[in-house]
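We close this part of the discussion by returning to an individual protein. The amino acid sequence and the backbone structure tokens for this protein are reproduced below:
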Amino acid sequence: MTDDRARHFIETSRFMAARDFLVMGRDTGGRVPQRTGGRVSQHDGGRVSQDTRGDTAQCAGAAPDTPAVVVFGAPLDTTTSFRSGARHGPRAIREYSYVLETFSMRTGQDLEKIPLFDAGDVDLAPGEVGPALDKICDAVRVILKKGGSPLMLGGEHLVTLPAVQAVHAAYPGLQVIHIDAHADMRLQYLGQELTHAGVMRRVSAIVGRENVYSAGIRSVSADEHEYASSLAANLSTSLGALMDFAARAGKRPVYLTIDIDVVDPAFAPGTGAPEPGGPSSRELLEAVATLHGLDIVAADIVEVAPQYDHAGITAALAAKVAREVIMMMARAPAS
């Protein structure tokens, strides 16, 4: 690298946590406190430290009131049905983001020109699904109220539900583009309705079936297959369908959710429910690039489970996807 300054989403020398912009923690009650100069340490898992040496820093030359892309973690791992560990996903994605250049050859954009903040992780109590979802919803509401665009790092896929709930309240015409190996449309799983296996069924109830587009799907239950048959025009096994989905979404606001298990486990083994027969890392990045130009008002990347991740290749891919999505959300000018 030609520049040894920070290339990490949370490195203190470049991308600061705007603690006055958003605070994730059980003690704040969702309130935005006074400026504290809180910074995010590269080694603390993305939590805001108590550094009080001055005003909260702005990043990349952005004006203090410039709406930012706000990265935050939602380390929920309560309803995972096979291999748990997605709660460690936000930390892993941040760690491997350090290897990335800030410049993207695909978009011609540079993160240094984007007002980007890492607000740390939502503080979630293990085992409490309802309260955890409420906290995530509240966090997204605060980001939107302050003029930011949220990019959430999961965590299991259920975290998408409260995020969509909050975003839909702000953008009633919301479209949801869902990239995943699994349909996630079960009515219930093991007697439970709130699970990662049924999150898109719940999302459809919020935004309307016709406003959910799913690509990359190659694993469904018999019940999901029956339910999905009524959504044939909105569900595809191919990532190539994203171009059509993008055209149909048009200028309407879009929530983008990407489950990393959409990628073949040969390229992304670090996930809770690996599904063979998927696209490569390159193919996912190329597919995501086709969404450039959409009005992506919020997004998430979920289901990275680093303990199954050989050499960190899944987290590295998720970090690179995050970089590209940040650029699409920011609509920053090309260099």
Q: What stands out?
A: The first helix runs from residue 89 to 97.
